[in-house]
Amino acid sequence: MNYLSTRGDATPRKFCDILLAGLAPDGGLYLPERYPQVGARLAELRRIHAEQGYAALAFEILSLYIDDIPPADLRALCEKTYTEEVFGTREIVPLRRLEEGLYLQALSNGPTLAFKDMAMQLLGNLFEYELARRGEELNILGATSGDTGSAAEYAMRGKRGIRVFMTSPHGRMSPFQQAQMFSLQDENIHNIAIEGVFDDCQDIVKAVSNDHAFKARYRIGTVNSINWARLLAQVVYYFAGYFQATGSEDQKVSFTVPSGNFGNVCAGHVARQMGLPIERLVVATNENDVLDEFFRTGVYRVRGAEHTYETSSPSMDISKASNFERFVFDLLGRDGAATRALFEQGVAQQGRFDLRGDARFADVARRFGFASGRSTHADRLATIRDTWERFGTMIDTHTADGLKVAREQQGDAGVPMIVLETALPIKFESTIVEALGRAPERPARFEGIEQLPKRVTVLPADAQQVKDYIAAHCGG
Ligand SMILES: *Cc1c(COP(=O)(O)O)cnc(C)c1O
Predict the structure, then answer these.
(1) Could you tell me the distance, in angstroms and rounded to a whole number, from the CA of residue 44 to the centre of ligand 1?
(2) To 10 degrees, what angle do helices 198-210 and 463-473 make?
(3) Cβ contacts of residue 133 below 8 Å, gap of 6+?
(4) CDD domains attached here (predicted)?
């Protein structure tokens, strides 16, 4: 399998060439040159999943896209990643029935209690494998306001050839999030609390990355959400959800996905393109409704900082959806020049593009199954309360956005609707208390983590001081 760029560069690249890369050189995102078709193999995949489990299913899906890692090694990487020990259950992504035709699929029982672990844990093992094979090292520099940084740290801790330098705004993450990250004692994990806000952290990462000499000398890389390997890892749980909700291959399911950067639901799109019988893919947003607006109207209009709201489902507070270009490329019939025009002249220069009246957009629901909806703080509170009172199930704020929208879009009663649960409620305690008047339960392994010793260095919002810190701690 070769990979190409959404902006037209079709230089053939293999999986491991793009594993450690960010954007393609022409500014586009990498995609496989085609989607392997599994329609005829679905029954066999179902049997593999039932008999050998999630890791074996992951190997089957991944091996369709990765031909530059020997199969035995790839299988071993999958088996090392998706274990009951790391993900809490034998099923890895168990399905829970809420009511007739409506299910929650748990994706958040990994080390940091959010679905990002599903991909990041695999990425950590892939990075370690590939770096060892090349005899190289990598220093991952990132900025986080919570979820992504901790998922990256838990995936990379103790990995050979990798160090993580994670900046976060000093004193601004929740006590639980701080404890999760700062209690890691691994030598290759460096928490840097910046005296500033999240934007200062992002500016520092940009400044360091733009210093090309420094970047090359200290082998600086990232683990951002546009990484194809992360997306590919997420494709697997759509299959696992489908197999759990159905008994045979003539049945269909729909998914509702709490969305921000369009990474999670884009993996659903890939699964559907491969021939998984998905009826509809419902994109759920919060008040930051860039994506809902697009699917309702055909207008993609990115927001400025002043119109990006801080909400109680903060991991979906985005102003533009960094993975969206992948879907647009497919929507435009894989026309790289047309995609380039929409994102370079449209998004980059005017902050928008408009596909109203374009026949390809008019067909988006029928051809690609997409639908969308939006949820607000009041909806989250009501949904969390209702789900607790009627089913005794506590859900987090992002999952609540999904469930609210799923009910509106459920449609055909014969088609099960699966809502992806993207985090556990303990991560967003204050909103749960607001909704229910009680705190969420805490998994035993997180009891008392706020009291553990913390490993963190506080630095001013100054890129040079961050560079000095990296230089002093990366043995290079
Ligand atoms: C990252 C995140 C999302 C959004 O996922 P995307 O892939 O960016 O669309 C939703 N919920 C939670 C809890 C997250 O951490």
Answers:
(1) 31
(2) 70
(3) none
(4) Thr-synth_2
Q: Whose CA is nearest to atom 8 of ligand 1?
A: 261
Confidence category of residue 476, pLDDT binned at 50, 70, 90: low
- What's the whole-number mean pLDDT along residues 310-325? 90
Residues in the chain: 476
Domain boundaries, the chain: 95-113+231-436
- Structural tokens at position 396: 């987090």
Radius of gyration of the chain (CA): 21
Pairing state between β 95-99 and 102-106 = antiparallel
Q: Which amino acid is at 459?
A: L
The C-alpha atoms of residue 275 and residue 237 are separated, in whole angstroms, by: 15
Predicted TM-score (pTM) above 0.90: yes
Q: Report which protein residue has its CA nearest ligand 1's atom 11.
A: 422
Round to whole Å and give the CA distance between 264 and 422.
9
C-alpha span between 228 and 69 (Å, rounded) = 16
Residue 398, ligand 1, Cβ within 6 A: yes
Determine the Cα–Cα distance for residues 95 and 118; give it in Å rounded to an integer. Answer: 15
| Residues 362-404 pLDDT 10s | 989 999 999 999 999 999 999 999 999 999 999 999 999 999 9
Point out the residues that are catalytic.
116
Are the C-beta atoms of residues 317 and 308 closer than 8 Å to each other? yes
Q: Which CATH architecture has domain 95-113+231-436?
A: 3-Layer(aba) Sandwich (3.40)
Q: What whole-number distance in Å separates Cα of residue 225 and Cα of residue 289?
A: 19
